[in-house]
Structures are given as structure tokens and as C-alpha cells.
From TrEMBL:
GO cellular component terms, semicolon-separated: SAM complex
Name under which the protein is recorded: Metaxin-2
Quaternary structure and partners: Interacts with MTX1/metaxin-1. Associates with the mitochondrial contact site and cristae organizing system (MICOS) complex, composed of at least MICOS10/MIC10, CHCHD3/MIC19, CHCHD6/MIC25, APOOL/MIC27, IMMT/MIC60, APOO/MIC23/MIC26 and QIL1/MIC13. This complex was also known under the names MINOS or MitOS complex. The MICOS complex associates with mitochondrial outer membrane proteins SAMM50, MTX1 and MTX2 (together described as components of the mitochondrial outer membrane sorting assembly machinery (SAM) complex) and DNAJC11, mitochondrial inner membrane protein TMEM11 and with HSPA9.
UniProt similarity note: Belongs to the metaxin family.
Residue ranges of domain Mitochondrial outer membrane transport complex Sam37/metaxin N-terminal in the record: 28-148
Originating organism: Aegithalos caudatus (Long-tailed tit)
Keyword terms of this UniProt record: Acetylation, Membrane, Mitochondrion, Mitochondrion outer membrane, Protein transport, Transport
Record-linked CDD domains: GST_C_Metaxin2, GST_N_Metaxin2
GO biological process: mitochondrion organization; protein transport
InterPro entries, per the entry: Glutathione-S-Trfase_C_sf (IPR036282), Glutathione_S-Trfase (IPR040079), Metaxin_GST (IPR033468), Mito_Protein_Transport_Metaxin (IPR050931), Sam37/metaxin_N (IPR019564)
UniProt function note: Involved in transport of proteins into the mitochondrion.
Length: 262
């Protein structure tokens, strides 16, 4: 039997309006979507130091009872241990396929978001550094931003992305969207009529890409080329986010009113 879910369960992320970056916003929205799909209420709390509060150093993280768990994968396992699962109805082949597509999203979309915000020089100077360091005084704001940039660029070098051009990264995004679009087809969700954690993950990234103002629209245009993916995002927004009250509003609740990254 499912354990009772505490009323004071909370999800932590960075400050919504002035600090959070594209990749973290996408990851946070994916977790929010997953918990909404499980019908587990969560209060979203924005903290400037959320990244440093997280046990893994990554956002979002949830605080449920006396447990603190960060990132979608571990959160899915934690929720499953409490008796709530979106993928129990899948057979082993479908579960393996779902995991493969989730890996694709993390390896392509998340990596592309990190590349864009930390390796594209114009984006770094105009958006990333001002936002990432915004809660802190000078020179700490610059020190923390450069520290993070060095960390991400080192990761990009390790996985072979450091030498890529922006055009190559956008092409990778297009290939990922093409694969997702083909898998979704005309179904409401990736595995037909019920959402799984894959749907939550894809929604988090695609919706954030579609509603985030960057230096150019090149990234969002790649997603807009696939009408079934944009319809999918709108469907999940309407079903799981519209009309839901949050302490720190979800991207979905505010997307049409103002850009998430200025």
C-alpha cells in the first residue's frame, strides 16, 4: 500500500525570476511534472543557495519527511519505494525502451542546454554570468560563475562536446527531437494513454526550451519544427499545471506572461 505523502513536502530550486538557468529550470519542471502525474502535492520553494543545499550539488531536490533526495532518477526511485509509480504498467521491454529514451534526453537535450549556457560566449556574457551570480555581491558573483563555467567546460571536454560548434549542438537537438517525435507519433503520451517518468522528463526540457528567451530563437525553433511535441507540451501544461497554486510558480504557470530568462 502507498505510504501517506506528507502535506509539507517541498521542492527546492534557485530563484525563479532572476537566477535559475535553462538546464536547472528544465530539471526542476520535470520533477514537478512527475510529482503532479503521481498526484503527490509539493510546495515549490525558491532559494538562492538551493544548489549548495542539495546533497548532490544539483537541483532540484525534494524534502519529504526527514528525507532529502535530488534529481529526477533518485526521486522516481524514492517515490516508488513509497508505493507510487507511473511505469508499473509497462512490460520489461517497454521499461528498457523508456530508460533508453530518458538517457537520450539527458545525453542530448540536457547537455545541449549546458553547452549553450556555459560554452556559447555571447550567452555566457549576456545571460549566464549575470543570472547565475545575481544573488551575490561582487566579486563573489563572478568567482562563482567562473568556477561553475570551468566545471561545466571540463565536463564538456570529457564527453567530447568541447570542440563542437553551436550549429553541431543544434543539429544534435534536432536529431533528439526527431527521435522523440517519431516515438510519440499521434499518441497522447509516449506509452499511449498514461504518462510515465519519460513524459515528465521530456516535458520539463521541451517546455522550458519553448518558453525561455535566449539570445536567439534557434534552440526553440528546433522543437517547434515538431508539431506533435509542441502539442504534447501544451497538453501536459493544461492537464497538470494550469490552475495549480504554487509558492514559487512553475514555468508552466507563467510562461505566456514573461520570459524565464531575460
Amino acid at each position: 500500500a502507498a505510504e501517506p505523502w506528507p502535506e509539507n513536502a517541498a521542492l527546492y530550486q534557485q530563484l525563479k525570476e532572476e537566477q535559475i538557468l535553462l538546464s536547472d529550470n528544465a530539471s526542476s519542471l520535470a520533477v514537478q511534472a512527475f510529482l503532479q502525474m503521481c498526484n503527490l502535492p509539493i510546495r515549490v520553494i525558491c532559494r538562492a543557495n538551493a544548489e549548495y543545499m542539495s546533497p548532490s550539488g544539483k537541483v532540484p531536490f525534494i524534502h519529504v519527511g526527514n528525507q532529502v533526495v535530488s534529481e529526477l532518477g533518485p526521486i522516481v526511485q524514492f517515490v516508488k519505494a513509497k508505493g507510487h509509480s507511473l511505469s508499473d504498467g509497462l512490460d520489461e521491454v517497454q521499461k528498457a525502451e523508456m530508460k533508453a529514451y530518458m538517457e537520450l534526453v539527458n545525453n542530448m537535450l540536457l547537455t545541449a542546454e549546458l553547452y549553450l549556457q556555459w560554452c556559447d560566449d555571447v550567452t555566457v556574457e549576456e545571460i549566464t554570468h549575470p543570472r547565475y551570480g545575481s544573488p551575490y555581491p561582487w566579486p563573489l558573483n563572478r568567482i562563482l560563475s567562473y568556477q561553475k563555467q570551468w566545471e561545466v567546460r571540463r565536463k564538456m571536454k570529457a564527453i567530447g562536446w568541447a570542440g563542437k560548434t553551436l550549429e553541431q549542438v543544434l543539429e544534435d537537438v534536432d536529431q533528439c527531437c526527431h527521435a522523440l517525435s517519431q516515438r510519440l507519433g499521434t499518441q497522447p503520451y509516449f506509452f499511449n494513454k498514461q504518462p510515465t517518468e519519460l513524459d515528465a522528463l521530456v516535458f520539463g526540457h521541451l517546455f522550458t526550451i519553448l518558453t525561455t528567451q535566449l539570445i536567439t530563437d534557434e534552440l526553440s525553433e528546433k522543437v517547434k519544427n515538431y508539431s506533435n511535441l509542441t502539442a504534447f507540451c501544451r497538453r501536459i501544461e493544461q492537464q497538470y499545471f494550469e490552475g495549480h497554486d504554487k509558492d514559487c510558480s512553475t514555468a508552466a504557470a507563467r510562461s505566456s506572461k514573461r520570459p524565464l530568462l531575460r
